[in-house]
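Reopening this ticket.

The earlier resolution said the output was attached, but the attachment link was broken on my side. Pasting everything inline this time so it's all in one place.
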Amino acid sequence: MTIQNPIPQSRALNIAIVGATGAVGAELIGCLERGAIEVSELRLLASARSAGRKMAFHGQDVEIQELREDSFVGIDIAFFSAGASLSRHYAPLAIAAGARVIDNSSAFRTDPLIPLIVPEANAAAMMNAPLVANPNCVAAIATVALAPLHRAWSIRRLNYATYQSASGAGAAAMEELRAGTQAALDGEEFAPSVLPHSYAFNLFSHNADIDPETGYNGEELKVIAETRRILDLPQLPIGVTCVRVPVLRAHSMALSVRFEDHVTPDQVRDCLARAPGVRIVDDAAANHFPMPCEATGQDDVLVGRIRQDLGDPSGRTIALFVAGDQLLKGAALNAVQIAERLVVGAAT
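Inline output:
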């Protein structure tokens, strides 16, 4: 792909959202309303069955259009959030029409020629690329906290245990959680159709397919590969277990981070208190630490339970707990922040 120049902010921009009616699409609209980019035209693109519906943007109704091969004429930035197959087909067409593409699917995340970006961690890796991949939600949320720690002390090993919300499986899974919970409260039978197991008052291993060679599921392998790419640590040893929990939209994770040298919890706390996109929630006296209910709707990633990992007597390992809104920093907000970095004068 040809490297393009930065997008000038001397004029309002024409923006397209592919997959506008999905959970992430709706959040993209909200993030653009609150963001730094001045929008001239917002082109909402979806399937033919959604065409003609309207969605609000800055108090005005915007009609949804059917996604077509010529939908990107005149577009400056195109956000894709409609699945990998659609991205693979339509993203090159958008680039050919002159648009810069930010893709939220898994289509391009493993391509070494396409930057995988969390602006707080590796914004410089974009190099004004015509296509930028938005990471897996767990990797995006985690690396907001991990990147400043790595810059300070060099991470040498990482272990994740994740507690992933329904929003990671889309709007239909969120609705299934609501409906299944209500059925359980009413004492009624409920047969899940979106996820493989009953979700109400339950948790289960992430429903991605298990890799027969490693025993890890697809989500876990994504987290490993993408964390390594974002931190530019291709050989970093990472262990991870991904679990679905009955929470609507914020992901949480327990992290154990081993550094090159001895690090204290106070040093980590001080580092993260100054890190962009991080809010410390670490009140041991009140037993108040990051929770998905408080991360929901928040731009910042919440970090707490910062303590020495007693499993490592060398003092080089820190344990911490992280929570972040999967639809915001895990998806839509990160994509809009990427766009702001691509636009001259709107970098955040």
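Reporter confirms the inline version is readable. The chain has two domains: 13-135+331-342, 140-326. The longest helix spans residues 137-153.
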